[in-house]
């Protein structure tokens, strides 16, 4: 019996390739599962941060001129233009969320744009004529609405990642419309 060592070697090589591809595929599955798990933990943290920030935005949007003036004081618990420090602490981990983090980036960008609008000057009466001050306040309120939408999209994405649905704060919080 004549053994064809080249054929056996080729069969062995093919078998080794099949086994290594199977192992790599299994490792890829484990890596994707671990990445989803990291993303879920981050999304769980972000849900509360984003909801609280959106509540600040809605309160500012519905505030009268004098009330709005006092909300815009760089206090992270009142001022809607201040990006929450808890969010900034998670900033370097947002890549685990993939494209679902895009509305968060948009919200941060919008908040930074809002901080540039001289609405406090307009509300304080330092901008003349009054029509110009009113335009600045209206522009600020329109951008607040944009920020609210980005935050709401972010919350929806975080709920999708976590698989948890929270109360629909878009309609009510303890009976108060927001």
Determine the N-to-C terminus distance: 86 Å
Low-confidence stretches: 172-178
Q: Report the order of strands and helices.
A: HHHHHHEE
Overall geometric form = rod-shaped
Helical coverage, percent range: 55-70%
The helix tally amounts to 6
How would you describe this structure to a colleague?
The chain is mainly α and 178 residues long. It has one domain. It is 70% helix and 2% strand. The protein has six helices and two strands. Strands 1-2 form a two-stranded antiparallel ribbon. A hairpin with a 2-residue loop joins β1 and β2. The protein is rod-shaped, with a radius of gyration of 26 Å. The C terminus is likely disordered.
Task: Please sum up the structure shown.
This protein has 178 residues and is mainly α.
């Amino acid at each position: 019996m004549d053994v064809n060592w080249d054929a056996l070697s080729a069969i062995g090589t093919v078998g080794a390739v099949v086994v290594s591809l199977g192992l790599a595929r299994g490792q890829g599955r484990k890596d994707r599962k671990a990445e989803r798990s990291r993303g879920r933990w981050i999304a769980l943290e972000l849900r509360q941060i984003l909801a609280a920030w959106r509540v600040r935005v809605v309160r500012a949007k519905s505030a009268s001129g004098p009330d709005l003036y006092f909300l815009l004081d760089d206090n992270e618990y009142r001022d809607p233009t201040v990006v929450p420090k808890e969010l900034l602490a998670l900033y370097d981990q947002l890549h685990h969320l993939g494209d679902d983090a895009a509305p968060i980036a948009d919200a941060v960008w919008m908040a930074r744009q809002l901080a540039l609008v001289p609405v406090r000057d307009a509300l304080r009466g330092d901008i003349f004529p009054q029509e110009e001050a009113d335009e600045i306040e209206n522009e600020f309120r329109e951008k607040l609405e944009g920020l609210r939408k980005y935050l709401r999209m972010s919350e929806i994405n975080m709920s999708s990642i976590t698989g948890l649905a929270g109360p629909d704060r878009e309609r009510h919080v303890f009976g108060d419309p927001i």
